[in-house]
Amino acid sequence: EIVLTQSPATLSLSPGERATLSCRASQSVSIYLAWYQQKPGQAPRLLIYDASNTATGIPARFSGSGSGTDFTLTISSLEPEDFAVYYCQHRSNWPFTFGGGTKVEIK
Amino acid sequence: EVQLVESGGGLVQPGRSLRLSCAASGFTFDDYAMHWVRQAPGKGLEWVSGIGWNSGTIDYADSVKGRFTISRDNAKNSLYLQMHSLRPEDTAFYYCTKDTLPGRSSGGGMDVWGQGTTVTVSS
């Protein structure tokens, strides 16, 4: 089973700032990594798939990069609605494990 | 409108069984792999089980292997999760999800999620 480690656990930033979230895999997952956003009381929403492909309807301020074992989700300029928990998930081979999450909170 | 609607959750005693259902609409169900993902109260996401578009690929998280069985009925556009020998640690919100890419068992992501159903295992 592939283990995904997300860092930091919590990111305290102000609106307008750039957010950089990290996800590291215990072994190579090629480009097969997805990112999700979850707000309280809501189901997760797919942001990025295959490391850098933006899902339908996702604003351009969200971008993903990386391959192999190291991946990054970048939010170029935080909007008030972006404060949430973000999860990565590998999609290389089953089981499709999730990382522990990064909470982006208002500073 | 693409939609997933889960049902079947509830309060159950440890050791008992429960069957979750997920009704899909608005897309060609038999083109996509489907999954169950759960979230314990205040915790992160846990992938529970997945099934390929033609049921050719099936897998489970180690935490549920041997106790849970995933299945699908493409004629009824439905996904199921049969849960046996339930434990208190199975208490969670269970989501049904749809894969992004048709005909694939890897890559992509989960682009449609149901509203979820709550399973509580307690005596």
Outline the structure in words:
The complex is a heterodimer of chains A (107) and B (123). Chain A is mainly β and 107 residues long. Chain A has strands spanning 4-7, 10-13, 19-25, 33-38, 45-49, 53-54, 62-67, 70-75, 85-90, 102-106. In chain A, the strands form 2 sheets. A 6-stranded mixed sheet of chain A has the order 2-10-9-4-5-6, with no helix packed on it. In chain A, strands 1-3-8-7 form a 4-stranded antiparallel sheet, with no helix packed on it. In chain A, strand 4 and strand 5 (45-49) form a beta hairpin. The model of chain A has no long low-confidence stretch (mean pLDDT 97). Chain B is built from no helices and 11 strands. In chain B, the strands form 2 sheets. In chain B, strands 2, 4, 5, 6, 9, 10 and 11 form a 7-stranded mixed sheet that branches. Chain B is globular and about 40 Å long. The mean pLDDT of chain B is 96. The chains are: A mainly beta (107), B mainly beta (123). Chains A and B meet through strand 4, strand 5 and strand 9 of A and strand 5 and strand 10 of B.
